[in-house]
């Protein structure tokens, strides 16, 4: 006798726990509304040596009543070697109770009857098990975590047998179990399961005069789980024929809107979709896509009109914020940018928690409010409406949290404050930002210049004021940079620059020399040039500091370097290292590479790459140069 037949033979008898050695209960055939008393004997189980034992149970019934299968604890009373407890059978929906036992102090120690649990099926007045008394057990295995939380795994053969017994005993429940039964056979993976499951799908659908869209969708999922996408797609077409306004048809139409490359046609397709399916679950995402499309197609007036027409749940406030801020930064379409951010602020006030927000919505909402107000302030500032911008910035700034502030926002706040004669009010935050490195160079200069104009001050006092503000931060930065310093001999070199002049290391003796190895094709090299120009500018009046931008690894005609420098207004001295001899001598592994040589002719600093942060690059190089100048 094979295992399946064996299981079917024993199911009817083995289900009653009175036949087991561990559990017995009364009444033997409980009915709804009754209290069942049971006795658990742990001898011969994993809990035989335990003294703190409790029961855990779930009710079960039809697959449509899984809400009642939430685990609960039943207290047990020890009587000799046994434990006694009671559970009540609800008057509605319950077809049985599944029990397991565990050590209440160490829940991982438990008795789950080798994964089958202990089962108390509910009966009718004649003593016959209720419908779902068997199939409902399989639903607990497949649709809840009750067994998994106890560290067990369902036996696929047992699950299939439970479903088969249920369907044979109660044929009218087949519509509730057919898909779970076939899915269990797929998990069972017995030889020949594929044709058998496909035959089961076809047999079930054929037995239904008019299969529902849900049934067809379930069949699609079963086919796809076996890799039969041809039959799955055929059913999709059938669904769309049966329900031309259903989810699958909407999905296809939505995809057609997404894939339409022509912007004019895309707008028309979207409008048609919105009119035909105003309540479609696909519409909010399509609306966000169209919002992005208006922006990318630079149809700003159309964008504003479109956004104003949309309900709040179709609007992505963070997307509008990004668009408005970019427009403000570019100083274009500022009235429209203002309309967009105002719309976003209005939506945020009543917006429900989005599905992609996992944390506390009140906290996240407050953060988004500050982001939007920052953009609103930026828009106002760019329109020259400084008093309004300053008021808006005050809602953005958090004086007690300067550590997490943005240097650019700090800069804009101070500039607006100075424009509106609120310098004294903004001064504490600006000073704190400078002291912890959250200030831009422009912000530092603005505060310094404002301070110089205050009564009793002058430029010298202002310089000393700024130096004092930065003193602790620079000391920390110097300490960190000292850890990066090296000490190697600087190889001698002699190169010719773009003007035909000879540049030699011998002529630079006694100076701090910054070498920047680069090539015209190197994107990070070019990206770092604005920062390098700023760094060079800081020492343009210092005869003891030289910057050399050594072109190397060019791999092309010399004219390309001339053309690049003629096109860009950098005031660089560009020696040519066509043979890479100097780059190799200075251990250049990749470009850009910055090398700093001290006045004694020693290589003290080498850095490969560009971080993308111009402020950090300028400040770091400046400190390195100043440190080397100060060395005796």
TrEMBL record:
Record PROSITE patterns: THIOREDOXIN_2
Signal peptide span: 1-21
Sorted UniProt keywords: Signal
SUPFAM superfamilies referenced in this protein's UniProt entry, alphabetically: Thioredoxin-like
Entry superkingdom: Bacteria
Chain ranges passing through the membrane: none
Thioredoxin domain boundaries: 484-630
UniProt xrefs under Pfam families: AhpC-TSA
Record keyword ATP-binding present: no
CDD domains: TlpA_like_family
Entry keyword Signal: yes
Name of the protein: Redoxin domain-containing protein
Organism: Spirosoma soli
């Amino acid at each position: 006798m094979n295992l399946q037949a064996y299981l079917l033979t024993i199911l009817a008898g083995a289900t009653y726990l009175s036949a087991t050695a561990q559990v017995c209960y009364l009444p033997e055939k409980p009915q709804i509304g009754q209290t069942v008393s049971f006795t658990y004997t742990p001898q011969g189980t994993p809990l035989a040596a335990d003294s703190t034992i409790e029961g855990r149970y779930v009710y079960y019934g039809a697959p449509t009543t899984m809400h009642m299968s939430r685990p609960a604890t039943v207290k047990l009373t020890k009587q000799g070697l046994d434990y006694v407890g009671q559970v009540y059978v609800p008057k509605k929906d319950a077809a049985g109770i599944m029990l397991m036992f565990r050590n209440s102090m160490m829940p991982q120690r438990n008795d789950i009857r080798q994964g089958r649990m202990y089962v108390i099926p509910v009966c009718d007045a004649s003593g016959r098990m209720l419908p779902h008394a068997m199939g409902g057990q399989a639903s607990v295995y497949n649709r809840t975590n009750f067994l998994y939380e106890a560290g067990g795994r369902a036996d696929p053969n047992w699950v299939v047998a439970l479903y088969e017994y249920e369907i044979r005993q109660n044929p009218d429940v087949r519509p509730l179990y057919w898909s779970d039964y076939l899915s269990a056979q797929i998990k069972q993976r017995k030889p020949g399961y594929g044709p058998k499951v496909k035959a089961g799908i076809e047999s079930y659908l054929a037995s239904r005069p008019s299969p529902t869209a849900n049934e067809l969708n379930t069949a699609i999922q079963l086919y796809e789980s076996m890799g039969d996408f041809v039959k799955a797609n055929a059913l999709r077409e059938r669904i769309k024929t049966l329900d031309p306004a259903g989810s699958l048809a909407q999905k296809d139409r939505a995809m057609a809107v997404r894939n339409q490359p022509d912007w004019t046609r895309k707008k028309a397709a979207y409008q048609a979709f919105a009119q035909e399916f105003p309540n479609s679950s696909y519409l909010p995402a399509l609306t966000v896509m169209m919002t992005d499309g208006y922006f990318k197609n630079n149809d700003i007036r159309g964008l504003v009109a479109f956004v104003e027409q949309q309900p709040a749940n179709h609007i992505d406030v963070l997307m509008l914020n990004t668009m408005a801020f970019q427009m403000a930064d570019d100083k274009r379409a500022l009235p429209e940018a203002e309309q967009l951010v105002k719309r976003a602020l209005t939506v945020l006030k009543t917006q429900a928690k989005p599905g992609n927000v996992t944390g506390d919505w009140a906290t996240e909402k407050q953060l988004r409010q500050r982001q939007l107000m920052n953009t609103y302030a930026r828009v106002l500032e760019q329109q020259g409406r400084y008093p309004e911008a300053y008021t808006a910035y005050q809602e953005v700034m958090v004086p007690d949290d300067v550590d997490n502030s943005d240097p650019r926002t700090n800069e804009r706040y101070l500039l607006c404050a100075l424009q509106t004669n609120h310098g004294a009010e903004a001064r504490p935050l600006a000073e704190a930002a400078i002291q912890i490195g959250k200030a831009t160079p422009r912000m530092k200069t603005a505060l310094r210049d404002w301070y110089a104009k205050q009564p009793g001050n002058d430029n010298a006092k202002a310089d000393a004021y700024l130096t004092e503000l930065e003193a602790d931060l620079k000391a920390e930065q110097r300490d960190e940079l000292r850890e990066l310093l090296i000490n190697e001999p600087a190889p001698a070199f002699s190169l010719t620059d773009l003007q035909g002049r000879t540049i030699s290391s011998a002529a630079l003796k006694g100076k701090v020399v910054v070498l920047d190895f680069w090539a015209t094709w190197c994107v990070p090299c070019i990206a770092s040039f604005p920062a390098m120009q700023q760094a060079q500018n800081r020492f343009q009046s210092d005869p003891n500091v030289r910057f050399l931008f050594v072109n190397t690894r060019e791999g092309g005609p010399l004219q390309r370097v001339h053309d690049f420098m003629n096109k860009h207004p950098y005031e660089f001295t560009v020696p040519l290292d066509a043979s890479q001899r100097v780059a190799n001598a200075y251990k250049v592994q990749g470009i850009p590479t910055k090398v700093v040589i001290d006045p004694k002719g020693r290589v003290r600093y080498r850095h490969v790459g560009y971080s993308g942060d111009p402020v950090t690059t300028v400040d770091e190089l400046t400190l390195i140069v100043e440190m080397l100048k100060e060395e005796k």
